Amino acid sequence: MRPRKLLLSSVLTVALTGTLGLASTGAAGAAGALGAADDPASTRDLPRRSAPALPAPERVGAPDAAALAEALTTRGPAASAPGQRVADGPLTGFEQRGGSDWTTLEEERRFLRQVDALSDKVSISPAGRTLEGRRLDLVQIGSGPRTQQQVAAGSSVLIACSQHGNEPAGREACLSMIRDLALDESPATKRLLENTTVLVVPTANPDGRAADTRGNSDGIDINRDHLALTTNEAKAIAKIVRDYKPQVVHDAHEYGGARDVYDRDLIRLWPRNLNVDKDVRALAVSLADDYIDPAVQSEGYTTGEYGIFYGPDGSPIAQVAGDEDERIMRNTMGLKHSVGQLVESLVNDFDDDETETENKLRRVRTQTLSLMGTTALVLEKRDQLLSTTRAAAEEATAEGAAGDQPFFFAGADNDLPSSGSVDLSPPCAYTMTVDQLAQVRQTLTLHGVSFTRAGGVVTVSMAQPAQPLIPLLLDARANNELLAATPVECG
């Protein structure tokens, strides 16, 4: 087997270490040192017409299974990185078996109970139940007990794991991260958890995981339900986002690529919807380019942009996915002023020599490294994340009141919409009947959309933080509206 370009023992220092420049100069400095794209997100004017060319990846061979299995059970990030692996902490089922098989739901429950018993930083609460009665857990990790109101008023990050039940690698990385943050006493972890609450939904689709299916027990793709909120699973996530107001939302998935053109070890993407605040999007692009990419590349893995086929020289040659669809979590989170990020590890075998266990270990390792990148962003840019996301909510409220900024019913940051898909003078409110409200009340409430009622008329003002979502929910011109409410002109 061909060796990895970088030794595993030297690159468990990804997040916030001087070796990669993360501690002293930020992840952007590390990105330059590792050959990642060095143009800052703030210089990306909208709309971008095409994906940037990336260096042609040097595929350096599948990871050594024994080394990665050892890393799972005996090593962690360097002492200056959040979430150092604790030698005597409990192991997931995946770790116990050296990566040969995934952690079962029963093993997950036992593992979480063990971590909770060992740490006063952890609290576990039910976020909802599936149609088959399985509990969706919300794991909260912080330096001390914090109420929902305290979390919402401060710094937080939400990590959603395996919305698609047949994409389990992200879930394994999430479970290990819960333990490592909960039990690690390193300075970096203490610094993170003193000021930030880490929220984790370790299995966002328990029924799908039990059945090893993409959809839930109804066959619905949860990651196409974050607007309509018809599934219990999407409702649970919407309630968490509404109540806790995370500045960053990391969404862990997996993908099956096409060898030679769509075969990066890990791909990622930010909210492309044009109604997302430009500064929120810039932070999401920076999370991808300046934090996740350097973290993943540090161990010799390759990264790319979700949905983009790359030619032999690294130039984009086609786009097959990754648009503005407001039903998808990364876009929905951006519309709610969170720095949303989709992360996907490659399911395909690295090459013909990669064993099943090596395949699983590689997938989990790249997911783990991507979480390190997200953690690094939160630790380094906590204040900027808070100020930017709060400013975005305030700006949306002001724009909704004035009705003087365009609203986009189509188009993405790399795809200009047609003129018919842009409202240059959007309404300042929508009205509906009481009967219509009955159809959408729960969904509006879960999205944090406020409304008033006078007699038989219900009014949804655009002058509120949910302004970017409201026309997508209530306007007949939207692609996925819940109903066609009546627009009310400004003035």
Description:
InterPro entries: Peptidase_M14 (IPR000834). The protein has 491 residues and is α/β, with parallel strands linked by helices. The chain folds into two domains: 8-380, Aminopeptidase; 398-488, no CATH class. It is 36% helix and 16% strand. The chain has helices spanning 27-33, 65-74, 93-96, 105-118, 148-153, 169-183, 187-195, 206-211, 232-244, 278-297, 329-335, 356-380, 382-402, 434-446, 470-474, and strands spanning 122-129, 135-141, 155-161, 196-201, 248-255, 266-269, 303-305, 308-310, 316-319, 339-346, 407-408, 422-423, 429-433, 452-454, 457-461, 486-488. Strand 14 and strand 15 (457-461) form a beta hairpin. Helix 4 (105-118) packs parallel to helix 6. It starts with 26 loop residues before the first helix and ends with a strand.
